[in-house]
Amino acid sequence: MAHTNCGCTKTEYQRSCADLIGPNAALEDNHHPPHVDEDIFTTLNGGIYFVKFDLSEAYLQVEVEPGYREYLTIGVYINLPDFYSE
Question: Whole-model pTM above 0.90?
């Protein structure tokens, strides 16, 4: 790793600095296409075993019927944006 200068004084909080150009160059890119919801539901069709899916980061990628979209909002302190409005 290359040397990086960090100017920290005694009155400031402790900082750690690193130059990550070397490790980033060694990483391999894995480009996997996202799963299509039709493929997931086709695979699960007729299944007898069920699991709980963590869709906390994938909720914007699943198609939802228009009648239920009003219930899927994200609560923030300013307003409730509807991410499924057309």
Answer: no
